[in-house]
Amino acid sequence: MNQQKGTIVRVEATTVRDFNRIDVRPMTGSIGAEIAGVDLRELDDELVAELRQAWLDHKVLFFRDQDLTHQQHLDYGRALGELEVHPFSDQVEGHPEILVIDSKPDAFISAETWHSDVTFREAPPLGSILLGRIIPPYGGDTCFANMELAYEMLPDATKEEIDGLYAIHSYVKAFGKGMSEEQLAEAQQKYPDQKHPLVRTHPETGNKGLFMARNFMLTIDGMTAEESKELRYRLYEQSKIPELQVRFRWQPNSIAQWDNRCTQHYAIPDHGGQRRRVERVTLIGDRPV
Ligand code: SIN
Questions:
Q1: How far apart are the C-alpha atoms of 105 and 111, rounded to whole Å?
Q2: Is residue 260 within 6 Å of ligand 1 at its C-beta?
Q3: Which has the least CB within 10 A, 40, 48, 145, 177?
Q4: Strand, helix or coil at 45?
């Protein structure tokens, strides 16, 4: 059991199973493991099954030195599930399933806050596989938070308070800026607001976790604007607890692969305007319950 005294948390030891094909090196007691000894260009059923299990165990997997072509990136994604196409983001030409985040010195992107991906969909993604292409000499790390531990660490009274509550998620805060009235109306029709539970049960592990995305959540269903803001901001504080985080320093050809159902992530915009380009394939998920 994780132990908590006031705001101090003692994270229990993480266990690593025995695998035949992969070397799993946990990065913290609560989230994230680096996977060594793997070439993602050479996949087979046993390797994919072990990676899937390690992914469930550690929530975010990190790989180094994976010099993948676009096709190999897609192949790895497809070995894990079906891929989706992001409706609003830039894509690699000829490969719409590869989303591109290529920094622009003066523009904020929606990943620069704690979030889980594409929660404005009725069925938000299962997970994402992000490949570093151009990495600045400093800054631009990505932080990940274990949202099951974030839930576990809430006071009992808060757990009771949020049990059965739903949040309204929309594309509009992140992608609505700069859209004309017509474009907004069209996007709203294709991607109507979605109601997702604040506490989600992971479909594979059965664990409960907070399901949130600051860039997509608008309000809490059934609350006044003021009540909703107070609760949302209180819950947003959870991902900031260092004991439930891991921080990843990118290199070219590094990969971070996160389970979108039980984690949040935050791309830190501290690279001083230097170029950072990462490319993502995203796995279709199911409706949160
Ligand atoms: C993302 O949210 O998919 C991107 C995260 C990052 O750029 O590190």
A1: 15
A2: no
A3: 177
A4: helix
Continuous H helices in 88-192 = 147-152, 156-162, 172-175, 181-190
Residue type, 279: E
Three-state secondary structure call for residue 139: coil
Distance CA 262, CA 59 (A): 7
pLDDT digits (tens, 9 = 90+) for 208-254: 999 999 999 999 999 999 999 999 999 999 999 999 999 999 999 99
Whether 258 contacts 128, CB under 8 Å: yes
- Cα(38) to centroid(ligand 1), Å: 23
> Which residue lies with its CA nearest to atom 5 of ligand 1?
267
Amino acid identity for residue 243 in this structure: E
Q: Whose CA is nearest to atom 6 of ligand 1?
A: 267
Mutate to test the pocket of ligand 1, among 83, 135, 278, 282 (most ligand atoms within 8 A of CB): 278
Q: Which atom of ligand 1 is nearest to the CA of 111?
A: 2
Q: How many CB atoms lie within 10 A of CB 210?
A: 27
In short, whether 215's Cβ falls inside 6 Å of ligand 1 is: no
Q: pTM to 2 decimals?
A: 0.95
Find the 256 Cα to ligand 1 centroid distance in Å. 9
Distance CA 124, CA 119 (A): 5
Q: How far apart are CA 21 and CA 56, in angstroms?
A: 16
What local confidence, expressed as pLDDT, does residue 1 receive? 60
For residue 119, which amino acid is it? T
Q: Dump pLDDT digits (tens) for 56-91.
A: 999 999 999 999 999 999 999 999 999 999 999 999
Catalytic sites, residue numbers: 115, 117, 265, 280
Residue 193 alpha carbon to ligand 1 centre in Å: 23
